[in-house]
Predict the 3D structure of the following.
Amino acid sequence: MTDIDFSAAAPAHAEPRVKSPHYISPAPFDPYSVDAMTPAQERFYQASQWRLMWWRLRRHRLAVISGALLLALYVMTVFCEFLAPYGLDSRNTDFIYAPPQVMHVVHDGRLTAPFVYGYDYKLDMDHLRRVYTPNPGKVQPIRFFCRGDSYHWWGLVPGNLHLMCPAEGGQLFLLGTDRLGRDMLSRIVYGARISLTIGLIGVSVSFTLGIVIGGIAGYYGGWIDILIQRGIEVIQSFPHLPLWMALSAVLPVTWSPLLVYFGITIILGMIEWTHLARAVRSKLLALREEDFCTAAVLMGATPARVIGRHLLPSFMSHLIASATLVIPGMILGETALSFLGLGLRPPITSWGVLLNQAQNISVVALYPWLMLPVVPVILTVLAFNFFGDGLRDAADPYH
Amino acid sequence: MLGYLVHRVLIMVPTLIAISIVIFTIIHLPPGDYFTTYIAELQSQGERANLAKIAFLKAQYGFDLPLWEQYLYWVFGLLRGDMGYSFLYDMPVNRVVGDRLLLTFIVSFTTIIFTYVVAFPIGVYSATHQYSIADYGLTFVGFLGLATPSFLLALVLVYLAHVYFGISVGGLMDPEYVDRPWTWGKAASVLAHIWIPVMVIGTAGTASMIRRLRANLLDELQKQYVVTARAKGLHPMKVLFKYPLRMALNPFVSDIGSLLPHVISGAAIVSVVMALPTTGPMLLEALRSQDMFLAGSFLMFMAFLTVIGVFLSDLALAALDPRIRLQAGR
């Protein structure tokens, strides 16, 4: 752009009328200066959709905390052999129904390494119950990164290293023991592996079903859509739990526990897909009319490309958020089924199988620590709910 | 309104038919039927089965017919009020069931009333006092209610009720009223017992209902007509009750469609834990012993209850909202 000096072009001779001076900035004029963005703005406006979602999610404090908790729980399922002080089935026949031990750090007024007091055992013949009293004379320091019960990590790699173990010849029952003297803490840690994965596998089953069936309904429309919609309504008008109960009762008794495990996950997934299918369908119907979709069709894109390249990425985030909100229902469903004895069976240990022991009032009255597996269930379900809420808010970053 | 009614009834019929087909399929999923296992079991114990009776029952309930004819038998039996034969109890399902269907209905109905009565004021309060301490507290309690497995809550509550109120453990009435005809004393005893299951079953539904009512009402309260009404000096209470609340109530009524399956599911498991004389424990027992006629009848009853409930809520919604009537009338 050339600079024109208007003042030089002004007539030199005097005029009778005095013009007011017209100020013109000598600085070079850039017509795009208004549109230019600061680096921060540029970063914001050019961020990808996923980055925007991440920023949005980060603002949701509770969702971030929940996400971190879930991550920690899932990492725990990978290393549960190492994290549990005892093996899954190690019995301590001298300590049946032992109450939880309290971890102390102060002994005789001095700060020491963490330890527990050993139990003195007495049989109360009046009430016919076992009485365990902590004996302050028996100080049993907890060992860390120690050799304990041997195990096969994921059934493959042999090892015996534990995060913490009882003192030599001592016990460590931080959450008490059950009717066979098995450590509850270890069993809860092992149960996480089953309980947490059942939701993931189940949700992937319903995810697949939801995308395929919802996609068909949304893309073809017409009578196929109507038929699928009615089918979904039928499934949704069933009370879920009785239906789950009926289906899991149908699983053959001869199946191995592992097969039953997969059977249960598929049953859970087969009923929960309806919400996802509805979400897919309504999103597809709405997005089909968008300009970018028409443009893609006009440019000669095949239906497969339109769906795969343009439609799916647009609502994938929504789907993931809805899927996250489906998982807690499945975890609770598995817990309920196993509690009733219709779900997983004992060699496989899930939180629901553990709660199966807490089926009557006497447990509540006498051995309340057997109800402790409910704590991780509540925490997980809450975390999934908060995390899913956060994801759902973040899923539409342009909104 | 009449057109809408006819429309809804016409939709309900195919839904019920589809449900009955699904249930019939589930009943027939296990290999063999009850008789083959029954005879094999007796023979393995060295006893002789009463073949004449079995043959009679097989003919009566059409076990030798092709599947679709069996299905028709079953469905038309249901329509006539004959729910089939329970092989576990060795008598017709109708006689096994007794009071149970009625009590299931009473428990479910009371739970829904409870849900509304509790969720309504709390939801309105949470929405009008958004981000107050009480709002946070109630939201937290609601989430906790959603996340706690109901069966465990039931156990703990039964224990507490027994220790502090001396209410007999389990059951829906005092032991002396069981199998007695209905009297005022029995009804009162049921009332004294019903609150625990109702509270336990209702917790999850109440929690989600509070959340939805709060969200709906918050959306509505931000609209401009509310601001206008406030600016003109209308009393805040009047502003709240005249329009936003009515608008927010719409989903409240239609939600019964998602609430009912929850309530009936919850009732099934809670009644097992609390040994309530409802359909839940018997369904579990029937499923365990693969007495599929009994199980199928209970499943059908529960699904029927749900469909009818959704139907009624749709009618209520139409009565409440003229737009829905108009849409369906067209």
